[in-house]
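QUALITY CONTROL LOG
STEP: pairwise intake check
CHECKER ROLE: data steward
CRITERIA: each record must contain a sequence immediately followed by its structure tokens, with no blank fields

ENTRY 1 OF 2
RESULT FIELD BELOW
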Amino acid sequence: GVAAQEIIDRIEASDSRFPLDTGDLVDLKRKGVPLEVLRVVNQRRLTTPAEATTPTSTEVTAEDLVATPGQEASPRIPQPRLVIHHDRSGYSILKPEGFADLAQFQGARSLLQLVNAAPNEGSMPEIEISVLAVLVPPNDRERLVPSSLRPFIERVTSDLRDSFRQDGLELHAEAPTETWLAARPAMRVQTVTRATDGRSYLGAHTLVFSEGRFHIVSYHVSSEQSAQWRDQLERIVDSFSLDGSALESVADTGDPRASVEALFTRWRDSLRQRDFRSWRSLHRGLADSVANRLTWLDEIQRLTGDRRRLELGRIDLEKGRLEYRRFGLDGPSSGSRDFVQDRGVWYLATLP
């Protein structure tokens, strides 16, 4: 029952800053937050250094995030169970069972495109997940280095904007931000697309380089479905893993404490760097299953992100337990993981 102007006055009086992205603003709009309040919140969003210093002519405003007033809402699309997709291009990813698989292969390019249903003309699928994998010619592979991620994804975004425009779609993009995916540095761009029918679609596109390839892992979701589906789509992107040979285990160094410290570092990095292969290798005999990928994703959500960091605490060699501290904007917390040594290799003893 508080008036919009009173909310704005409170925000301005407290000089509040908000750790939100465009998807959060979409959710707030759908929950009934007035547009004038959203404008103020959007102006006071916490930005990353890249967002603060990179100019963009396509800045997303609160008006870009909402569908046309009075537009008929789409019915809620239920979330099916997840399954693992193993692609011949050398990666795997979780996907919703039953989504239409529009995979395309053409020479050095492969495109996995998963949609809940075919869109109407001049529109987009309500929910879409895609992975573009491109094999780069040997002479050009030296360019696939972290320093070229930003200009590369800016060019990709520009090409996507031009392609969408030909289909009558208007794409707005935020500044690229640094992240990690599949144990590699990556670059991410969030987008909002307006279709000719007035609907808006939230998207995210993550670029990562691998051995001789680049991958772009993306999703789009309509503003009507974003509140229900966005978290699930983010987890699907995070589940992307580059398949390959078995990783080296944490071998016994002769110094038990140093070995446990190395085990903790590998575990921490497997969460921070979205590295399922490494995380799986730290658990003895762990299968690649949907349940285990979801357990890993739950750990990522609980212990990383939102400027959180993990630090090693006390090591109890007799009990086989290490303690850790998590620090973040929501305050510190602590936890522990059990470990075991088996035939010269150190493992995490149990799942979290």
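ENTRY 2 OF 2
RESULT FIELD BELOW
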Amino acid sequence: MGEGRHSRIFARAYWFARWQNSVNRVPVGMLSDGSGAARPKRRTPGNSAAETRLQSLLTLVAAPMIQQRTRSDAGFTVANPEHERVSAPAFLRWVMTQQERFELVDGQIVRMMAGARQSHNVVTSNLVVALSPSAKRQGCRTTSSDTAVGTGPRSIRFPDVVVDCGPSDPTAVKASRPTLVVEVASPGTSAIDTTDKLDEYQAHEDIRVIVFVDPDVVSVKVYR
């Protein structure tokens, strides 16, 4: 996708933020390319007790024990096999059978925060609607958080919005050529979104634009 295509898609995200701003009657949000922004320091999750109820995960990784590490401030839980890490294909086969949301981070299966706020869901839905016409004209597809994005041999993310410009495959779980990804912040996830996920997305050879939206302050940050 060329710069002109990117500009049209980003413009929709920007004007959506302004529209959302006027509805909520709060100060106009920030639109930034992310340059010069302070990056939060990464923190290591603390350890907690082993959780015995993840029988399906035990079967998947064939590990004798799973060590549970919880990070309450980030809204996720890491199920960390002691002796084996999970491959991306194995994770995708497994995650499609689950009701909860999970991501794969360097071979570790991460349970994501459940119960997103209504504002998060509204922003995500409106972005999909706003981006879809422009993406379709360019031969791309706009999907929601059910579309996986591979960010490494053992890492899989599920952005809130994905513009996929690769070959269409109705049976595919993973985006074939994700060109634009959007993360809509939830309480406690902003630090992870703008550090770990940003690094992974920027290292992806196909992703040209990364957008972070914070509904609470009506902020849109664009990294190109």
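INTAKE CHECK: passed for both entries
DESCRIPTIVE NOTE, ENTRY 2: Confidence is low (pLDDT under 50) at residues 15-76.
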